[in-house]
Design goal:
By secondary structure, the protein is of the alpha+beta class. Helices cover 50% and strands 21% of the residues. It contains 13 helices and 9 strands. The longest helix has 22 residues, at 147-168.
């Protein structure tokens, strides 16, 4: 993906380098690829699925949807659809492009959606309709042209899409957060950790999503939680697992819910914390309840 973005920047450099347009086709499945997005990105999925992880949020989009992604660190996975290659049209844009749009149409924005207090999000997902499907085709025609002739057209197509979203999804568009690459605050790190208890992300991946080195992330983590990451995640996962077991979930299903890949490793971890296997734990609690 990093090479793809570099290629976009080399092959499609519109006026003032505010945009880049690229047709992306992949025949190899991609699993949690670490992406450092230097620009914001509109991904219009045409075949397959894309899974995106930011520090404190995750989403999956299909070929019936498209997504606005904020610049910064994220994890991306691409999945095929019925053995067909993954396809998408990518439109990169700088913060300045969106700022100019909001400035140019400030009066329209105030009339359409005067409440600008919506929660900010690093990505926003939209459903495709006939307009968007035709829009994708128009981008493909532009991308086939000589780069020097298409630069201003890409800028106009970006404005066209933003106007469409402003008219049809004003709240969602205005919730989109463009952010710089500064280090995350303690609150943001807490959100990243606590919303990924069962996501099975590695420590390296969490540090990457929070724009820190692994050593810095560990240091800040221990300061926040007074535990090592391993101790904290083990404790949180097992407490969650115990809750599921007390709700009579089958032990063979609980391991998946708390982010383990198999029942054996989950059972070992559970016994390490509670001294008994998940099944024994459940049986003991049931027996205790029956005797009350």
């Amino acid at each position: 993906m990093a090479q793809m973005q570099k290629q976009v920047q080399q092959e499609a450099k519109p006026a003032e380098n505010l945009f880049g347009l690229f047709n992306h086709v992949s025949t190899n499945p991609v699993l949690k690829n670490r992406i450092d997005l230097q620009q914001n990105l509109i991904t219009l999925v045409e075949q397959g699925e894309k899974v995106v992880h930011y520090a404190n949020s995750r989403t999956t989009i299909t070929d019936a949807q498209f997504i606005l992604l904020s610049s910064g660190n994220c994890l991306m996975s691409e999945k095929f659809s019925k053995d067909r290659p993954y396809r998408s049209t990518l439109l990169f844009f700088e913060n300045a492009a969106l700022t100019r749009f909001f400035t140019k149409y400030a009066s329209l924005i105030s009339r359409i959606s005067p409440d600008l207090s919506a929660d900010k999000k690093p990505f926003v997902v939209f459903e495709k309709d006939e307009f968007i499907r035709n829009y994708i085709q128009s981008l493909k025609f532009i991308n086939q042209e000589t780069p020097g002739l298409s630069e201003q057209k890409i800028a106009l197509k970006f404005e066209e899409l933003m106007l469409y979203l402003l008219e049809n999804y004003p709240k969602e568009l205005l919730s989109f957060q463009i952010r710089s690459q500064e280090e995350y605050s303690d609150l943001e790190i807490r959100k990243a950790v606590e919303q990924n208890i069962t996501s099975n992300l590695t420590l390296e991946e969490l540090a990457f999503l929070c724009h820190t080195s692994v050593s810095t992330f560990k240091r800040r983590f221990q300061k926040l939680y007074q535990l090592t990451p391993r101790q904290y995640f083990l404790q949180q996962k097992m407490e969650l697992a115990a809750t599921f077991l007390l709700e009579n979930d089958h032990p063979g299903e609980v391991f998946y819910k708390v982010g383990y890949e198999n029942h054996s490793s989950f059972s070992q971890s559970f016994k390490q914390v509670y001294g008994v296997s998940p099944k024994e734990f459940q049986q003991q609690k049931r027996a205790f309840s029956d005797n009350l």
